[in-house]
Amino acid sequence: MGSRRAGALLGVAISAALIAGCGDEDFKNEPRPPVPIGLSGVIQSNRVTVSPARVGAGPIVITISNQTERERTITLEGETLMQRAGPIAPGDTATIQRTLAPGTYEVRAGSMTAVRREIEPAMLDIGAERPASNNDLMLP
Length: 140
Hints:
Elements lengths: L1 H20 L15 E7 L4 E4 L2 E13 L5 E6 L4 E7 L4 E8 L2 E8 L11 E8 L11
Parallel strand pairs: 1-3, 3-8
Antiparallel strand pairs: 1-2, 3-6, 4-5, 4-7, 7-8
C-alpha cells in the first residue's frame, strides 16, 4: 500500500511539473503601450493650435477642426515622420493617430490654392515615454 501511495505522489509531482512548464514559450508578458492621449486642434485663418502642446511619448490621437473658409490639408511632421490628413472641408474635422517618439513636431495646415500668407503651424513637444498601461483597468 505504501508503494502505491508513493507511486501516486510521484505521478502527481510529475504532472504538476509538466503543467507548470507548459506555455512558457507561447506567452510573453510584455508591457502594454501607454494609453492613447487625445489632443484637440483648430485651424484658424492665421494659425493652427493644438492642445495640450506638450505630452509624453506614446500613442496620440489629434482631432483637428477647420474653422477657415477653405478646404485645408493637415500635416504632422517631425524628424523622421510625415503624415497628412484631409482635405478638411470648412467646419469639418479630421483625425491623425500616431505613436510619437520624443522630439518636436509641427502641425501645419495647407491649401491647394495659393494664399497670401502661410498659416502659422502649431508645435508639439513630445517628452519622455509615458508609463505602460499594464495597471489601467477597463482597457481593450
